[in-house]
Amino acid sequence: MAEIAPSILAADFGNLQRDVELLNASAADYIHVDIMDGVFVPNISFGIPVCEAIHKHAKKPLDVHLMIEKPERYFEAFKKAGAWGITMHYEACTHLHRNIENLKELGLSAGVALNPHTPVELLTDVLGDVSLVLIMSVNPGFGGQKFIDNTYKKIARLHSLREKFGYSFKIEVDGGVNLDNAPLLVREGVDILVAGSFVFSSSDPKGIIEQLKVAS
Fold it and tell me: Where, by residue number, is the active site (predicted)?
């Protein structure tokens, strides 16, 4: 059974505390926090103060996903804002190994995300150092996008590398996750499902989270 990380980006920001408390009372395992800078991705979401506000009410670990340039500038700030783990993009890091080690030194779960066009094989030299690999199943920057089918093959290759070398990192997938593709993703090796608009656009978000768990 997969873990579920609802993306708070899809919540009602006029009722943020209410939606965080909804997730607290749900079967969710994490709260996924998407940070966008309008540079690395063509959208701006929110920053450190909103992360702090989420953490103030959250009883689930904050799974912070930095879709930003030079993410290492903000590791300490997001730790102080309540991050349990930080996932940065391979495509945004010149010194990826150094950044991974910095996150671990801060006591954070260290994750690396890959855009749809980036092969998993480019992470071969750091897979033994990370806690999490996030596969983007849509192009990052906006919610509600259609799932990219090539993601299944990509996850299968990543899972094969994990098995071959005996690594312990978790595989997370983000983008277009629903009740139809959740079991297929888990079958290929996914451990954590991120779902945003699919959860929060539902009339019963808690029920959808439970259904995602059961379906996977």
Answer: 34 (proton acceptor), 174 (proton donor)
**Residue 146: pLDDT band by 50, 70, 90 thresholds?**
confident
User: Which is the catalytic residue, given 19, 37, 63, 174?
Assistant: 174
129 is catalytic: no
Active site residue 204: no
Q: Look over the chain and give the mean of its residue pLDDT values, rounded to a whole number.
A: 96
- In angstroms, the Cα distances linking 2 to 94, 134, 143, 185 are 32, 14, 21, 10
pLDDT per position as a tens digit, 58-109:
999 999 999 999 999 999 999 999 999 999 999 999 999 999 999 999 999 9
Give the whole-angstrom CA distance, residue 4 versus residue 2: 6
Is 32 annotated to bind a ligand? Reply is yes
> Which pLDDT does position 144 carry in this prediction?
65
Beta bridge partners of 65: 34, 87
Q: Is 7 annotated among the ligand-binding residues?
A: yes
Superfamily of domain 3-215 in the CATH hierarchy:
Aldolase class I (3.20.20.70)
Active-site residue among 19, 34, 37, 191?
Answer: 34
Confirm or deny that 196 is annotated as ligand binding. Answer: yes
Query: Under a CB-based contact definition with an 8 Å cutoff, are residues 116 and 136 in contact?
Result: yes
Q: What is the dihedral of CA 123, 128, 129, 130, to 10 degrees?
A: 70
Give the integer Cα–Cα distance in Å for 34 and 89: 12
Residue 20, SS3 per DSSP: helix
User: Which pLDDT band, with edges at 50, 70 and 90, does 49 fall under?
Assistant: very high
pTM for the model: 0.96
